[in-house]
Amino acid sequence: MPLLFAIFLEIIVVTSLEDIDIGAWINGHRLTDLQFADDIALLAESEISFQEALSSLWQNSKQMEMKINVAKTETQLLGYGSVSLSIELEGQDLKHTDKFVYLGGVMNSVEGTEADVKRRIGIARGIFQMLSKIWTQRDLSKALKTEVFEVMVISALLYNSETWVIKAATKNRLKAFKMACLRKIVGVTKRDRIRNTEIPSRLNWQKDIIKRIQQRRLKYFGHVARMNTERYPYMAFYGQVQGTRRKGRQKKRWVDTIKQDCKEMHLKFYDAIQMTQNRQVWRKSVEELLTYVDPTSPRH
Predict the structure, then answer these.
(1) What does pTM read for this prediction?
(2) In the chain, what are the domain boundaries?
(3) Would you give the DSSP letter of residue 230?
(4) Which of 47, 163, 186, 198 is 20 to 30 A off residue 102, Cα-Cα?
(5) Which pairs with CB-CB distance under 8 Å and at least 24 residues apart come from 185-191?
(6) Residue 127: its H or E element
(7) Each residue of 251-270: pLDDT tens digit?
(8) Measured between alpha carbons, how far is 54 from 50 in angstroms, rounded to an integer?
(9) pLDDT for 145-171, tens place per residue?
């Protein structure tokens, strides 16, 4: 993105939001928007303040001879319920959606990260199918095929996985996708009545997909824990959001998953935070403590 455009965009956003009560408060810090290149996500706790902020952004954009693309602008309610927002821009009602792709990840109002996992499986499956000729080539070694599988398919599958909070059913879906791919590479089907435990050993590829997600999550946790206190991810992780949580059983949060990961590593959560301050020590600990053999691999 050109530097001049970035400067213009920053001026527009700051000028538009400086006198408007908008955003989420975290530990006394007001988070009004998220920006990436020319994508802007406004945050508001009420429909009225959101409309006011968007109108202000629209007016200031016009003064700088820039224009918001109404067709590409959408609203989303992050929370509980199925209420649709009624927001207008230049006399047109903005499209309301319950899911939105931002920076390659799905922001879903209901399913949480489960929707993102489903999308990544779909993308990885599409890539795997496009490479079908490679899997059936007899003159290519299994080692080369698994290397292609790792680089092209698994890397696409695990994109953004460090932010996932996944349930048991989704873990099984990920394992099933991996096993279906490995069977295709080996050249067998379920009709051949070959156990899942034998497939990875034939390819010498015994990597547990769930443990790999756990490792990525813990490494990113270390990255966030070492951030400057003014960084948004740091504030979101350590800060307290104003408001109350609903009654009843709560949704599992990312920090809850991290605490469970630390428990499996036989670490107390606060001890883990201290360990993360040394990047090399933390990464080595994650690799060592999570050394794991895929339970579908044969026992010797």
Answers:
(1) 0.82
(2) 3-97, 112-207, 213-240+251-289
(3) T
(4) 47
(5) 185/135, 185/142, 185/145, 185/146, 185/149, 186/142, 187/135, 187/136
(6) helix 113-130
(7) 788 999 999 999 888 889 99
(8) 6
(9) 999 999 999 999 999 999 999 889 999
For 106, the token pair is: 């799905």
3-state SS, residue 103:
coil
Residue type, 93: D
- Expressed in angstroms, the distance from the first to the final Cα of the chain is 55
Name the percent of the chain in helix, strand, coil, to the closest 5: 55, 10, 35
CA 40 – CA 162 distance, rounded (Å):
23
Q: Which two tokens stand for residue 258?
A: 């991290």
DSSP labels for 51-101?
HHHHHHHHHHHHHTT----GGG-EE---SSS-PPP--EETTEEPEE-SEEE
How far does CA 25 lie from the centroid of its chain? 22
Local structure of residue 153 (DSSP, 8 states)? I
Tokens of 182: 């490995």
Counting other chains too, the contacts that 57-62 makes at CB distance below 8 Å and 24 or more residues apart are: 57/12, 57/13, 57/16, 57/17, 58/89, 58/90, 59/16, 60/12, 60/15, 60/16, 61/12
Q: Which candidate, 240, 255, 179, 243, places its Cα nearest to that of 210?
A: 179
Q: Are 31 and 13 in contact (CB under 8 A)?
A: no
